[in-house]
Amino acid sequence: MWGAAISAYQVEGGIDNCDWARDEKMPKAGRACEHYRFYDKDFALAHSLGQNAHRLSLEWSRLEPEEGQFNHLALEHYQQVLSALHARHLEPFVTLWHFTLPQWLAVQEGWQNPKSVDYFCSYVEFVVSNLKGRVKFWLTLNEPEVYLLNGYIKPKWPPFKKSLFSAWQAKRNLIKAHQQAYLIIKKIQPSAQVSLPINFSWFSPRNKYSPIDWWMARLALWANGIFLRPNKKCMDFLAINYYTRRMVSIFTGFRNEFGMTNEQLTDMGWEIYPKGIYQILRRLKKYHLPVYITENGLADQSDKKRWPYIRDHLIWLHQAIEKGIDVRGYFYWSLMDNFEWADGFDPCFGLIEINYRTMERFIRPSAWQYAKTCQSNQLLR
């Protein structure tokens, strides 16, 4: 499968009943890309680019604006969205939670609250019961480890709680939420394929002669799996998000721009390191599960690095396939420029450029090059 990915809060527009929209510390998505209005146009563009799959998320705060009160108009909208995908021959990969929480849950301490597991499961049951005929692939929780890092360890995202104990509470509930959601989905829709998208970076020692740097890099690679190991029996496939490598040093911590030129970095300062996707998959081969790359992309306003980035990652994915790893799909992040969380609208990840004033869409040259691979199902260099 070949496609691209988006998430509701980052592209839909008009979402004002969630923690990100209500928090005064954060930039707001506002109109975003007005994908809520223009979804059919956007899917037509994806189809024109040869894609046959599409990853999207549902906005929990739209579907359950008040605790226990489900919005059937919002449900009808997402039914229409999924029908539009099928009409364009795009296989939906549906994410049930992508970072934002309904405001009514956020004020109850969000994922720290043990009741959050029951709340999430109730939401999942409602959604899957009503959309099961339109969706084969479900993704429960997007990058929960990234959410914990940015919400509780750094913290630069809601709920802005710098507390290891709070992070542990949220982690425990997120693990339970995935496991119980998996069982609910399987009960309602036994044929469904269910997974949990996890963000994997590759970690290398800054000083290859330093045993401490080596140890820190190994520890960081182990920590990559904090949501994989406890959930390995509740996954039908591996959903892997990969962007970059980080260099590890006892003196400077986790960085990714040591002595690198601009050509080696994205607009956000992330190292372009395609081999990492191969190294990660070799480590995960022991799970003996099919693999979908559910996110892989870069911020590149000039669009000069995007196709080489995609091409080189696909070359390494081919190497992984030759080593016996069952890679079945690839989703570029993102279909279109969007609201990039704390970084606002500046980063340009999209295959499609958005004019945020007029909401016009412009297909970038790199998208047409990726389209050749999508259409031919082979890498044309």
TrEMBL record:
Transmembrane segments: none annotated. Keywords: Glycosidase, Hydrolase. The keyword Hydrolase applies. GO terms for molecular function: beta-glucosidase activity. The active site is at E295. GO terms for biological process: carbohydrate metabolic process. Belongs to the glycosyl hydrolase 1 family. This is Glycoside hydrolase family 1 protein. It comes from Candidatus Portnoybacteria bacterium CG10_big_fil_rev_8_21_14_0_10_40_22.
